Amino acid sequence: MISVKLIRYTPNGERLVAVSAKQSLSRKPFMYQWDKMSDSEVEVWIKETLKRNHFSPWEHSVYTFVIENCSRVCTHQLIRHRIASYTQLSQRFARMTGEYFGVVKPPRIALNKEAKRIFDKVVKESYEAYLKLLDMGIAPEDARYILPQGVITKIVVTMNARELHHFFGLRMCVKAQWEIRYVAWRMWQEVMKVHPLLFKWAGPRCITVENISRKGEPLSLKDALSGKAGFTIERCPENIPREQIPICLRNAAKILEELK
User: Which of 119, 124, 173, 245 has the fewest Cβ atoms within 10 angstroms?
Assistant: First the structure.
């Protein structure tokens, strides 16, 4: 099962973002604002930067995750988000043998008897060939070429709050592939535990675009999912009409239950 854990984050990240944002307008010292800013004012400044699409202050709050038991297919998509830091299990030096070898099986293959048979057969043959190459003295960095893309891996990921908003916008969407969509929703759940003021208005791009153009109170992801509040945009960036966006959003969130 894919595991996503937030292991480190910027203490007082919400206050840091709010005070940093106020620095662009206030001539008073940083620590004066840090000590004087109330909790309610922190939320006001976070909302203002969100609505004005002024995200540079968000870059000061940083988050580190450990993601385990995902596939190389997933991490290959993940590392395309370049404003981040990554450290991944190296197949050049670590041998993918015994208990350390595994492959993520897509649900649509697992539920199809014939597809599952073909998948399992090819994975077995690939693994056996990998072991033979190692026995022949072939270095792991060369033997790994025969392994499937679905081989299980682990990766440490560090992103700031701004990049997380961008990442969530693309990867929490129903258009994202199921595995990285699950990782994105789990990462969102993790940061919501520590900094809800920064991330309750995050989500797929339908949420972020809505909040840039929306008048008044921003739309939270939870309110959008529950139907407590609706969308005002005519279409989402994926060209889904307004009345269909909540359905699309709930379908995207189903991945959390499907892989539970």
Answer: 124
Q: Which of 171, 231, 185 is nearest to 207 (CA)?
A: 231
Distance, CA of 124 to CA of 152 (rounded, Å):
14
Over residues 212-245, the pLDDT tens digits come to: 889 889 999 999 999 999 999 999 999 999 999 9
The b-or-e profile of 188-216 (16+ CB within 10 A means b, else e) is bebbbebbebbbbbbbbbbbbbbbeebee
CATH of 3-69+74-84+154-258 given 2.30.42.10, 3.60.20.10, 3.30.1360.170, 3.40.50.2300: 3.30.1360.170
DSSP conformational letter for 59:
G
Q: What is the pLDDT of residues 101-115, one digit of tens each?
A: 999 999 999 999 999
SS3 218: coil
Fold of 97-150: 1.20.5
Strands 3-9 and 62-71: antiparallel
Helix residue spans in the chain (DSSP H) = 13-23, 30-36, 39-51, 72-78, 107-110, 113-135, 140-143, 161-171, 178-194, 196-199, 205-213, 221-226, 245-253, 255-258
Interatomic CA distance for residues 62 and 209, integer angstroms? 23
Q: Would residue 171 show up in a list of annotated catalytic residues for this protein? A: yes
Q: Which of 144, 171, 181, 186 is catalytic?
A: 171
